[in-house]
Design goal:
mainly alpha; single chain; 6 helices
Length: 158
């Protein structure tokens, strides 16, 4: 883990808090499902969806735990104090978002809601460019070479 020598209050300036973006996509998906229910012929949807949800929670929790151990804030509207590069962050740069996506898709599959799954692509684009790209630019400004080195060795998602 790298410590920042800065004490400024700059943040990543993401377009919205990521949990709110996921929640909005869920709500839109459930409303669309109520308005126009489409068939979802998947055997074992509960097993597949439940498995995705469990894996997603594990990734999400590992990412949160890593940030808490490093004593750096999780919310995107607070300044990052430490560049976390160990634990789950040594495997993927975005375990929390990856976990959120797995939970999101898992709920869509378990609920047999095709609209949630259809909204995964626009949500992924929104998270990638409206959140992750801004966070990456912020982390590069804040941590410089340490972040560039980390980015070169650890994948964004998988």
């Amino acid at each position: 883990m790298e410590m920042a020598g800065q004490t400024d209050t700059e943040t990543a300036g993401v377009i919205a808090r990521p949990p709110l973006l996921f929640l909005a996509a869920f709500l839109i998906g459930f409303v669309l499902d109520r308005l126009l229910r489409l068939p979802f012929p998947v055997l074992g949807a509960w097993i597949i969806g439940g498995s995705l949800i469990l894996i997603g929670f594990a990734l999400f929790a590992a990412g949160i735990r890593n940030f808490m151990r490093a004593e750096t804030p999780v919310p995107t509207n607070e300044p990052t104090r430490v560049l976390v590069t160990t634990g789950i962050h040594g495997w993927t740069r975005n375990p929390i978002y990856l976990g959120m996506f797995l939970i999101y898709v898992g709920i869509g599959v378990a609920a047999q809601n095709i609209w949630i799954l259809v909204l995964t692509l626009p949500l992924a684009i929104l998270i990638r460019y409206g959140v992750v790209a801004r966070e990456e630019a912020y982390l590069e400004r804040r941590f410089g070479d340490a972040y560039r080195d980390y980015r070169q060795t650890v994948r964004r998602w998988l």
